[in-house]
Amino acid sequence: MTPFHLAFPVRDLDETRAFYGEVLGCRIGRSSDTWVDFDLYGHQMSAHLRPTVASAQRDGAVDGIVVPIPHFGAVLLMDEWEKLAARLEARDDIDWLERPMVRFKGQPGEQATLFIRDPSGNALEFKVFRSLEQVFAH
Questions:
Q1: pLDDT value, residue 13
Q2: What CA–CA distance (Å, rounded) separates 125 from 117?
Q3: What is the pLDDT, as a whole number, of residue 27?
Q4: What is the SS3 string spanning the chain?
Q5: Exposed, middle or buried, 30 (CB in 10 Å: 0-12/13-18/19+)?
Q6: What is the CA radius of gyration of the chain?
Q7: Are strands 95-103 and 65-69 parallel, antiparallel or unpaired?
Q8: Phi, psi (degrees; rounded to nearest 5) at 53
Q9: Residue 100: how many CB atoms within 10 A of its CB?
Q10: Alpha-carbon gap, residue 113 to 92, rounded angstroms
Q11: What is the pTM of this model?
């Protein structure tokens, strides 16, 4: 599988580098005065400076839980997700939208998930399925 690319707005590149690099553990790639690339679990994420970024609104619903739209993130393997969840839970500076939980319990597509916001208000979801075959289950 090839990586995807996502360009997203951020209000400050230094706080963005710290969050994605130190908090999430992303490798930092190329950058300029107006953008910086990150390796988010093998995917190219490009943060572009937009000082007037607006936060994602909590106006979507998934399995009875209100989630922010738009949001982005990654589908991980269980060991990666557990490590990330533990890393985030151990910090006191995380802007949690949904702490680690399981949704669609006992149904096709059952998944563990968590939602956080980055310093610019971008909503991120990280999730894991019992098996990758369940990603597109219906």
A1: 96
A2: 9
A3: 97
A4: CCCCEEEEEECCHHHHHHHHHHHCCCEEEEECCCEEEEEECCEEEEEEECCCCCCCEEEEEECCEEEEECEEEEECCHHHHHHHHHHHHCCCCCEEEEEEEEECCCCCCCEEEEEEECCCCCEEEEEEECCHHHCCCC
A5: exposed
A6: 15
A7: unpaired
A8: -60, 140
A9: 19
A10: 19
A11: 0.88
- pLDDT at residue 113, rounded to an integer: 95
User: What pLDDT is recorded for position 137?
Assistant: 76
State the 10-residue block means of pLDDT for the chain, 138 residues long. 92 96 97 97 96 71 77 94 96 95 86 95 93 76
Name the token pair of 97. Answer: 């939208």
Residue type, 85: A
For residue 68, what are the β-bridge partners?
58
End-to-end CA distance of the chain: 22
